[in-house]
Structures are given as C-alpha cells and as structure tokens.
Amino acid sequence: MNPCAGSFNWRPYLRKQGFTAAPVSCFKHVALSNCWDSIVENVRVEVRSPDCKGPNCNCTTNPCRYWLATVIKVCGYWGLLRYDGFDKITPKYFNVPDKWVNLCTEPHIHPIGWCAKNGKLLVPPKSIEPKIICWRDFLMEMLPGGRTLPPDFTFRIEEHSHNSIKKGMKLEVVDKNLISVVRSAVVTDVVGGRLHIKYSECGEEEEDEGFWCHERSPLIHPVGWAQIIGHALKASPEYARLSLKKTLYRTFEPDDATWDMFLPVYNPIGNLKFKKKMKLEAIDPLNLSAICVATVTEVLRNNYLMIGIDGMMAANGADCFCYHASSPCIFPVGFCESNGIKLTPPKGYKTEFKWSEYLKKTKSEAAPVDLFQKDIPDHGFKEGMFLEAVDLMEPRLICVAYVTKVVGRLLKIHFDGWEEDYDQWCDCESPDLFPIGWCDVLGYRLEPPRVDGSEEKKKKKTVVKKRKKKALTKRAAGSDDSQMIIDDEIKKNDFEDSKDSFQDNSVVPDDSSSSSYQGKLRGTPRRSLTTITPPSSSNIQEGKQKLNFNKKSTLNSTPVKSIPMDENSSAVPNEQKRLRSKRITYEECPDPELDKFRTRRRRRKQKKSAEMVLEDSSSSSSGVEILD
C-alpha cells in the first residue's frame, strides 16, 4: 500500500546518528510481531537494481533487472539495504549507497530465487561489475548459509489485516462527551485494527463526526455489556431490553459485535476484592499526562470499577471512568512515590501531599496492593526509542513520538516537537502504539513533528489543547445550582421509576435533541441499577408509556451459564427484588412535590366540606332537600 499523501517520512530521522526505534516485537497487536526479528535481521533479498533507472525501462511496474541486497539494519518496519558487492569497493561506510526502505511496502523486494522462478534478470550493477573477477564464485561464497524472506511474506502481512470486528458491526462504546456512560455505536471504517465509530442513536442537533479507536481498546465493548456489567447506558429502552436479551440467550444478529470478539478480562479468585471508597492512584482519563489521587466510587459486576479523580469529581459522577480491576492504568497507594513519578494531589490541596495524612483525614482505606496487576512482561521498550503513537485526546491523529520514561510496564510517551503537557502515560501493551512504518503499511497519515513557525501544524494541535480544556471543564459542570434543579427533577420521577418492570442497569434516555439534556445529564447523580430516568419533566406521562416494559422480563428466566457474572451478584439486584415484591403506591411515595400536592388537595376537600356544611344548614332551614 502506498503511503498516505502528506504523511511524515521517517528517512531524515533514520539517517541521524544514534537514532533508535522500538522493535516490531514490542507491539503484540501488529503484523509479524512474533517473528519479525528472526525474519528480517541480516536476510538477503532480491531487489531492483540501482541501474534500473533509465528512460527505456518501465521501473515503476516491471523492473528490467534485479540484484542482491542485505538488510544490515532494522528500525521498526524499515530496513537499511546494502547491495551485495558494494562493500568490496570502499571501506568507508558513508560512501556505500545504502538505502532505507519500508520492507512491507517496497514493491520490488523478493526472497532469493524469485528471479529464477519468474524469469527475471539477476545482474550485478555496472559500477561494481569490473571489481569482482568471477561473480558466480562470489555468489557461491555469499549465499550458502544465508537467510532470506519466507515466500509467503506478503501474505502474512495481508492476513493480519483481517479483523474480527468488521465495518457495519454494532457495539457499545464510551461516550466521548460523558465518559461515565456508554452508548450503542456502529463501526463505519476499519484500518489495520483501528475502528472508526459513530453513535447509533443521535439527536437531530447532536453532531457526531465519529472517532477512532483500536479493536483492543478498553473503550469498546460487545452488545449487551452495559446491561450485564451494570454500567450506565445512554440508549433507548428498547435497545437496553434487546441487548440484554441477546446476551442472555445468545440470540445475536450477524452485525452484532459479540463477546468472543473481545479479549477476556482477568478475574481473580479469592475473597480479596475492591470496595467502594477505597483510595488508589490512577491515570486521569481526561489528562493522560497526570497520575492522580483517585477513589473507587462504585463496584460493578465482573470486577469492573468506576474510578473518580479526587478533587475533580462532579457531584453526579459524570466524569468517573470505568476501569477493570486488572487495568494497568490503576496503581496502589504509594506507587508514584516509590517510582519517582509526580503524583497529582486533589485539587485545592495546599499542603505537601502525604498518603498517611490524607487517608486519616478522609477516613478512608487504601486498596490492598495484592489487588493490582503485578505482571511485568519483557516488553523491550527503552527510553529514547521512537514509535508512532495515537494522540488519545484527538484519536484520529497518529503522531511521531518517543519513550521518555519506563516504569515496569508503564511508559511515558512524548510527542516530538510538543510540550510535556501533551505527554501520555500508557501501558506497554497499549493498542495505540505502533512501530515506525506502520502508517505507511496501512496507508494511514502520520502527523509530522511540530516545527517552530509552522502555523498549520500549530493550528491542528491547538485543537487537541482546546479539547483537553473542554474535557477538564466537564468536571465543573456538576455545580451545586444545577444539582438542586436536577434533584428536584429526580424526586418528581422517583415514583414513576419504581413502577417500571425490572431493568438490569440504569439507562440514560436518548433524548439528545433537547437543548437542556446535556445539562441534566451532567447534574444527574448515578442512580440505582434498577432505575430508568425519564427524558424530562414535561414528558413524564409519555415516559410512563414508553418505559413500562412487559412484566415477563427476560431476567425472570435463568441466565445463560456462560455469561460472566460476579459470584456475589445475582441476575436480579436486591433493590429490584424489593421493588418487585412491594409496589410503591401513590400515598407511600416520599416525594416533597407530591406531599405539597396532597396538602393542597386535602385543603380543597376541607374547604369544600365546610362549604357543603354551610349550604346544608342554610338549606335545611329553608325546607329545601339537598340531593347528593
């Protein structure tokens, strides 16, 4: 595949002395990562001859002659070729016409024997032909015992491009504007394992250009994941019901992303588990250059956790993020201090931060160290190695980057030419890191480093800066004033919610067309797993009609055994069992608004009764009969 127009070319960097790139074997999710080093290092190949440049030969599609070359150096997917025999001319390295090429995209690189099999000429270049007395003896001396590319080299690269998640498939993905909920979405494009995703249910006023993420990203999940795990879901009630039914009874449609398409998560065996309000350290999902003091705000099923950044959490938990207990992005208390990393204290914390004092002040406990992932693979990353990295604040961009710090399996990635504010902490097995040359292989644009004076590049990256600020301002969205308004709204709807049939988790209604919807969503506190939040106060009655599911809920049946459920959780939460066993009546609803209404109604009745008594007494005195 030809490189994308405007994509950065690695050759100027490759020619720099001391340049190092992360080996392909460091990236487990890319093509040939498990065998690249053994295939490429010091192999001999047949390549287009340097003499094949004249106007009389069709060099672009069918070179007229080939010659032998050796791959003497490898950087990512790039290889440095040296034509055999040129080292016989001069001992000076810089005078040898070596050539950097992308070994996966160069169209005229073939294993030894390809010319003989396809009737092509294998001829030494004219510049070195007189220097060697007998070329046959030279080849017999050089070739035996050497290695070459496997015959199916090209096929292996193409085979890896076949992804399990295809274009047009449906899945669930984190809402980029409200990271505490997930939404249903559709895959609109696939490039080398990277998916372009658009939300399925968008309001008329909601602009959705879509966004990119890898098929191994923790941001995406199979259909029905939110309902099974107990994660907040922004979708129509119909989708919530059907997605749960599909998962429980394995009645997926052909275009549904199913559970077997995703990597399994590790679930520890034992009684030691995370608990609500435990303290830890975590990478801030809205500021990936910072590791912050964090709290477990909620424990979901299957060892998934809702994590909030201390001092930044909105009252409604709108900026809490879902991490699995085995996530490499969460760390035990004291991790940063023991590894020389700056820990970001809670916002407004003025004194020097010390965990012992903070835990005592907040009357909380630290999550046990044994709960965190300790496996550190031999990943091969070292400081100073270059690679291609996704800018996760603007995931459509893949940029020139390098590793600045390695702590166990944790890497700090710096974007070349940009300030440290744009750095990203990520795991060594992150699917958003690629070897150099990956973008060329897939035909994806690689963003160049920023060069001082380049206004266009500054403008592009400024978008990312604004997005970071925008994302961070979400934290302040859950202000006290908005919270009071939303609390009143919730109290009005509590009774209607309790009358609905069982639903496995909270569903945020898809009413994005309302201009006030985002404000309501940010102010709405996380509800019980049994609650369905009506769209708005003006549509309470309409919401009653839409949200009253069939009494024969799918969860009344026995769940499929293969569906992962936490051993301490049942298919029906205790709170929902209570609501199903005891229907709350109008008079029992402890709602202030309804209390006011009942008071006004009682006063009207009393007033009416008093008037009737007066009329009765007056009528009786006049001898007129009063008919009821």
Automatic annotation (TrEMBL):
Low complexity bias (residue ranges): 506-516
Protein's name in the database: MBT domain-containing protein 1
Composition bias type Polar residues, residue spans: 527-560
Molecular function (Gene Ontology), one example: histone binding
InterPro entries tied to this protein: Mbt (IPR004092), PcG_chromatin_remod_factors (IPR050548)
The entry's keywords: Repeat
Residues of the signal peptide: none
An example Gene Ontology biological process: negative regulation of DNA-templated transcription
MBT repeat segments: 8-125, 133-236, 242-346, 353-449
Gene3D superfamilies: 2.30.30.140
Family matches, as SUPFAM superfamilies: Tudor/PWWP/MBT
Compositional bias per record (Basic residues), positions renumbered to this chain: 458-473, 598-607
GO CC entries: nucleus
Residue segments, region Disordered: 450-480, 496-628
Native species: Larinioides sclopetarius
SMART domains noted in UniProt: MBT (SM00561)
Superkingdom of origin organism: Eukaryota
